[in-house]
Design a protein that fits this description.
Layout: E1 3-8, H1 11-21, E2 25-31, E3 37-42, E4 49-54, E5 71-77, H2 81-90, E6 95-102, E7 106-112, E8 118-124
């Protein structure tokens, strides 16, 4: 497991809270192919990581926000995301999103745990 991702409604407000008030440091950020923005934060002492995910109004992932249900997904970096996705789906694990290549660098896909929580599987493409 690499990080926990939460959905936020106001990225700048959330960044200020987690960095200025709780002391997390920004590690990196990026834009998703559907227009969302992610920011990876890290605690300088424990090295635990939190990813903030913001989705624009027209994103299919911008669903009504319910307080307490902001868990977006749990991210796992694996050797071969597509192979693991195929294995898990063949064993009956429910699929959330089929594999795709994001920005020519990473294979990403999502499955669901038994309670429906989204689990991201990702692997970096070899250069």
């Amino acid at each position: 497991m690499v990080y926990i991702g939460i959905r936020v409604t106001d990225l700048e407000r959330s960044l200020k809270f987690y960095t200025e008030l709780l002391g997390l440091k920004e590690v990196r950020r990026g834009k998703m192919s559907h227009g969302g923005i992610w920011v990876l934060l890290e605690d300088p002492e424990s090295h635990q990581r939190l990813e903030l995910n913001w989705y624009p109004k027209d994103s299919p992932f911008n669903t009504p926000y319910i307080v307490g249900e902001g868990l977006d997904h749990i991210g796992f970096e694996v050797k071969d995301a597509k192979a693991l996705y195929d294995e898990l789906s063949s064993k009956g694990v429910k699929v959330a999103l089929e594999p795709w290549i994001e920005q020519d660098t990473t294979v990403i896909c999502y499955v669901k745990d038994p309670d429906g929580n989204w689990i991201e599987l990702f692997s970096r493409l070899k250069e």
